[in-house]
Each structure stands twice: as C-alpha cells, then as structure tokens.
Design brief:
homodimer; Arc Repressor Mutant, subunit A; DNA-binding
DNA sequence: CAAACTACCTCATTATACAATATAGTTCAC
DNA sequence: GTGAACTATATTGTATAATGAGGTAGTTTG
C-alpha cells in the first residue's frame, strides 16, 4: 500500500527536520532519503518539499546556503537551527500523544476484526 | 500536553467512524466520547464535527436520521454503512503504515535524545 | 429569570499538500 | 553528437480539512 499525502499532513516538517538533525543536506537528497526510508511507499512531492523549506526557513527552524559544487547542478543546503531542534523535540513528543490516541481508537478495540 | 488539530488532520473521519462502528450515535455524544477517550487532551471542535458528518454522508460512509426524543433538544443520529465499515478498515490499515513510518523517523533514531 | 447545559448548523478564513509548469546542468547509450 | 534520463531547484494556482465566529433553540437548576 502506498502512503498518500493526506495521511502525512502536518508531519512533513518533522520528517525533514529529522533528516537535518543528523547533518546538513539538500532537497533532492532528503527526498530520496525519505523515499528509501519509507520502503518506497511514500514520496514527498517536489512542490511540497520546497514550500516546506520556505516555511521552515521563515519560521527560523532552518537556515540555508548554496553549496559550491565543482560539477553538477547547484545545491541549496539546509541547516537545522537551535529553534528547529527544539521544535523537532516538541513534534516528537506530540507524535507520541497522537499515536497513543489513534491506537486507542484504531487498534485496541479493532484488533480482532482487522487482520494485519 | 494538549493535542492540536494539525496533528490529527485527516483522522477525524476515522475516529468518528470508529465510534459509530459500535452503535448509532449523535454529534454531541460522539464529541464527548472522543474528549473522554483522549483523557481530555483532545476536543473535536463543533464546526469540524458537523462538516465531517456532511462529508461522510456525502461520501456514503454514514446515513442519518432524526431521533424521536420525548424531551430535550432534537438529536440527529448517524449510522455507519457497509461502505463506511470498509473505509474504516482501510483507514486502520493506513494508520499502521503511517505509524511505522513516523516511528522510523521520530522514535527509532531519537530514542536516546528525547526522554519521555 | 438567567445561567449553564444540551444539541444542532453554516460561512469565511487559514494552512498544507500538490499538480502543473518552468529552468538548467550532467551523464550515458547509441 | 544527440536525445533520453537524471540531478537539482523553484513558483503558481487549486483542492481540502479544520476551525473561529456566529447563529438557533429547547432544558434544567439555583
């Protein structure tokens, strides 16, 4: 089953920041990373990727700079800020709450009905 | 911590259908049920509740009828359809996929960094 | 009788995701 | 040497979900 966008709504920021928390990276690489990490079930669309970068930068969660590639297309690298790290931690805490709530609805009561 | 709406985005349908999968119910009762089930962390807003009912009915996932209360305000009861049950099962399967993906990002790599 | 509660509803606004579209350099098979 | 596939970034317009703000109306209780 493929993962569609409405299921991910609101978590794009967190996924991208998670990637950047390891090291600086650029759009194309992050996109591929997420694709692979999802077992090729979820591909972030380009429009989403770049609008999310604009938002994150505007909110101060990331900063960006142009890489100096000697060959190939130019790359814009993104770097997570201290605010971005704090925001990511917050998002992770939130995720745990959401997961608990949704599991209470979807899993706990329905386990016997929905074979995985 | 309270659960905000953008984290729940897209799962309102599933939560409501889950309530209705047990028995027919009406808006106000469903709202209270969700509030209690979340440990008073998440309250579905009324506007969201009723726009979701409209959508679910339009999509054929629920049907509705007016209850014949002998006293108190009128209640519109909702009933889940066969299509609604199939849709709910689909949503639950999707939830498991999403949970796995988000855990891969948020939990697996960050466990040591974010004390619960 | 007024406040609090039960119960329903709609409209306009906002935010996120994305299809469509555009630009441009690189690599590689034929 | 050229065309396809790939690398890489970006914007604009559209669709949808959630919700703030507002409205209606009956019931209970102090």
């Amino acid at each position: 089953m493929n993962i569609t966008s409405d299921m991910i709504y609101g978590y794009t920021d967190g996924m991208i920041l998670c990637c950047l928390s390891e090291q600086d990276s650029y759009g194309y690489a992050i996109n591929n990373f997420i694709l692979e990490k999802s077992g090729f079930k979820y591909e972030l669309k380009e429009a989403t990727l770049y609008t999310t970068f604009r938002r994150l930068e505007k909110q101060g969660h990331v900063t960006s700079y142009w890489g100096n590639e000697s060959s190939g297309p130019r790359r814009r690298y993104y770097s997570i800020t201290q605010e971005g790290r704090a925001y990511l931690k917050q998002r992770i805490r939130e995720w745990k709450e959401i997961r608990q709530l949704m599991d209470a609805f979807f899993i706990d009561k329905k386990e016997e009905e929905t074979e995985t």
